[in-house]
Hints:
The protein is mainly beta. It has a domain at 1-74. The protein has helices at 299-310, 374-378, and strands spanning 4-9, 35-40, 48-54, 80-81, 83-89, 95-102, 106-112, 118-124, 130-134, 142-148, 151-157, 163-169, 182-189, 191-197, 200-210, 214-223, 229-232, 236-239, 243-244, 249-255, 260-265, 269-270, 275-276, 280-285, 290-295, 318-321, 328-332, 335-341, 348-357, 363-369, 386-392, 397-405, 411-416, 419-425, 433-441. Strands 4, 26, 27, 28, 29, 30, 31 and 32 form an eight-stranded mixed sheet that branches. Strands 14, 15, 16, 17 and 18 form a five-stranded antiparallel sheet that branches. Strand 10 (142-148) and strand 11 form a beta hairpin. The longest helix has 12 residues, at 299-310. Residues 1-71 have low confidence and may be disordered.
Amino acid sequence: MRTDYGILIGSCCGRPHARAMAEIHLLRSGWVRGIEVAMVPVRGSSIVLAIVLASVVASVVVMASAHVAFAQPRAVPLPVVGATELVKWTPPSGFIEDVVAGDGDRIAYVVADAAAKAELHVVSLATKQEVVVDIAPITLHPVAVQLVGERAFVIGRTEDGMQIAALVELAGKDPRKPAGTALYKLGPANHITVIARDGKPRVAVHRTIATKERTRHDTQLFALETGRRIAAGRPLELDAAGANAKLALRVNHWSEGFTRAHGVTAGAWDRKENQRAPDAEASYDLVTGKLTRRPVADLFEQKRRFDALADAGGRTSFVRTKPDGRELQLWHANKVVAITLDQPFASYDPKSLIASVQPDGSAWLALKIDPVHPDAVARKKADPEYLDVFRVAIDGKAVRKARILATGTRHRFGVIGDRFWLLERNAGFDRGGKILTLYAPQ
């Protein structure tokens, strides 16, 4: 609906039959559209200025004077601060999957359409040379990719939620094995994970078999490069409470691709003291069948740690917000370090946290500015919605390296060497994105 306003402004000129000019100063907090101004000279000691404003969506201040000091224009936030955009990919059709990987000089991503298309793109950052391989015969829903020399290990999800995997040829130097050939396949299984075992890359395959009263967990290890089976693990049966009576073990969480179960084991009966020893922490290796124990030094610390690890989904290296929402924590190698940002943590939306922990225990993380955080409210001015990227040292000190303007957008975030990538998420579809951008901090 259109709204018109008529404003009449009179100002004394100081002498008769003089022509006066009223000047209008518009100070706005938003966009103003459809402004029509008519200036009419009138004989006498005043002038009449008729202004018609149509479809006004901002506040307007009208000032009449012979000499006007114009307001300074509002600063426009820079789209990128502290980083250089190296390359950007936007597929002409379909979308880019959440899976992005790299090995220093290369980046790998998948373009799919969730129906019949799944193309693995591997780009050399030095030469910009690109290899495109059709992986639709393997999976239409990839969830992980790892580059293995001139091959790529692809893990996908089936329609029933299981996982499958294959090592895919990229180079196609052998005519008998053209690019896209699956050199070996694994699965289906509940979980397929690339892990480091005895200093070598292995693929852990985890399956569960459920009965009325118990769930059986089976694991196998395969060589990543060849697909050769390295070991078949010992089965572990757990009841509905996640306990194994023979081992006196109650499982709390898993690690290393479900090859290790961690929990609490009941203390042994001490005949001399005629009492049971305190419960101990325990770790069971499904590959070797070995159970290791260690005493619990602090029950409260152990409870907090186990709660966090149970929520981590099989990860032991991650960044999380403390339950009180006041601090970030870096978890790695059974150690917890408090993260100290060089910017006020209260300026960010804690739910926007995205992080990538590196093998040495350092990390990268990204947080989005809350435009109406407490300081912004106090000064009555909303902040731009920047996504801030931080480099976190192993001691927890985090330094902001870059800012990307992210008004109204969500991102996936990851790291390749000393560069980071952002995948702008699709709106209304919680899978993949439309634009993948690689940045280098300055």
